[in-house]
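Hi R.,

Here's the chain you asked about this morning:
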Amino acid sequence: MPGKILQELSRYKIGTFAYIVHRHALLRPDREAYVYGKKRLTYARFNAEVNRLVHALQELGVNKGDAIGIIAWNCLDYAIVYGAAMKGGYLLSRFNPRLGAEEVNYLVNYSEVNTLFVGPELVPVIESVRSRTPGVKNFISVEAKNPHMIHLEDLLASYPGEEPDVTVEEDDPFFIIYTSGTTGVPRGAVYSHREAWDDTRTYIINLGIQPDDRHIQVSPMFHIAGDTILRSILYVGGCNIIVKIFDPAAALQLIQDEKATHMSIVPTHLIAMLAVPDVKKYDVSSLKYIWYGGSPMPLEVVRRGLETFGAVFGQGYGQSESGPAICHLPKEEHEVLGTPHEVRLTSVGQPDIGVQVRIVDDAGQDVKPGEMGEIITRSKHNMQEYWKKPDDTGSTIVDGWLHTGDIGCYDEDGYVYIKDRKKDMIITGGENVFPREIEEVLYRHPGVHEVAVIGIPDPYWVEKVHAVVSLKKGAAATAEELITLCKKNLAGYKSPKSVEFMDTLPKNAAGKIMKRELRQKYWADLGRSI
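And the predicted structure, written out as tokens:
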């Protein structure tokens, strides 16, 4: 019937991701939506699989507004579960697959999910706590069958692919992103479709994403950084190429084979790719953007990245509670090596469109350019609240401003410079020391692979500067050598008093170095919060 497609396009409300998935199935049915290994899923097939899962969940007693959860590594089934939350009106909780059993038990109960999707690697963890999660009525396995769970593939084969009868609204709760837990018990940041929609369009502008773009999804899909780029590619009708576990050489090969245009990473990903032997043998000429964030990128690593991959780097700054978009430094502004503006590569750029940023002192007063303070932000895509934690919400969002806990400064042109997390700042002999400044110097040493600077107890200084270093394969360096390097470039009180060498530094699933874990052995018995 003439005009039927336009009528059908009006089925779902604009401002929801139900509308986005349905729209692409109608207008781009044969375009690839997802690639995962040898599996390729078009938008028409993706929409149908999502619909089948919504019908199945409805039959299992899962209704619009109910909370569902998933604990798995990146995979194609993950995308289908996410799509079902978009179209079924469910509140999706995505749990970190690296968490221990007690942490998982806490989060599953805290989130109040009634249905839990479980990846094959996580079945033992879930089985160990299953008896203590009475609110979960449906356990559904993804990727592989499990005799004690319903299998997702069986559900998809048993229900129709027609559109479900669900009306999703812009202000319906959509998903919960959990804070990383690097500083304490994770809390859940709640977002509606409205906040996710606003944040997504910010990233599309920042990265210039187009329908023909192809993104390598190495960032974990449970994390706000991995989530926002996944949403952004989906929004325009591009293709997400899902990687289960990051391997630097395999990622480079995938860029070459799939003619990928975008990749979203954290600094440890870039460090690993730069360490791949013959890294320049891979054809990565299709890349338009390598988008990085998650933690500060050392200037020396940015320099090496630009020399190896060219002018394709852009940076984003945000956090689990901010949507995440706060600031960005576009790739055009990375072409400043050797110029007076090179220092801007150590910034996170300027505030995003639709985002207001201030830097304030402990009294809440705005500081002057160059002065240190806490970064606070206001936008239409900040989280609504912490799930079931009104006191924490009230102390984090004050008069509409989200307090990030990040310490930084800004210059006369509005470029924001993050010095450190408020909780990572070291106070030694009464002097404030920001670890990132020291880490920047240590990365200049040719043998240093990764480094984390922390404060540890000291009987005289109360807290002293301590560097934890992993070296490149085959490289050598001594503690004295690294301390001397710092003393040549920093004030004496900022230089490490001690250096510890490790084969690898502990990281969370998003690739962030876990400073809290490094501090644990030094502070755990001294009654200090770490």
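The CA atoms of residues 237 and 293 lie 24 Å apart.

Let me know if you need anything else.
M.
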